Amino acid sequence: MSKISKFFKGGGSAGSKGRGGPSPQEALARLRETEEMLSKKQEYLETRIERELAVARQHGTKNKRAALQALKRKKRYEKQLNQIDGTLSTIEFQREALENSHTNTEVLKNMGYAAQAMKKVHENMDLNKIDDLMQDITEQQDVAQEISDAISNRAAFGDEFDE
Q1: What is the pLDDT of residues 41-59, one digit of tens each?
Q2: DSSP-derived secondary structure letter, 155
Q3: What domains does the chain contain, in order, with CATH numbers?
């Protein structure tokens, strides 16, 4: 389907109509297309400005009327070029904002997935059981330390006997 027929039929895909608006990817694609179109128009106007300037120089003092007409057209083209520059800036700002919003949405969605995963992992953990386990570990470490201390102390076999 051509771009013109899409435009007159409401544009977009059938899937985007049911959701209440275009997806971020569709909107970004359209913004990029618009940026491309405006950039091409900018290039076209810049060449037209240069041509009109060349015509004005060519006629110079020989044909002032033709030179003035060329300068007027050049001025019109420059005005259009300035408008396109402003429009491009606005579109770039909107595209960047949409990209940032899309990124933030993806980050938030992934953080939600991570939170659900953590919840699932912690489902089988009971705080009282963990506390009891930690106490058991501490007790066993104390027992191991006492055993280690008992083994590492020098035996005073000769000192304990009384003559």
Answers
A1: 999 999 999 999 999 999 8
A2: P
A3: 23-112 (1.10.287.1060)
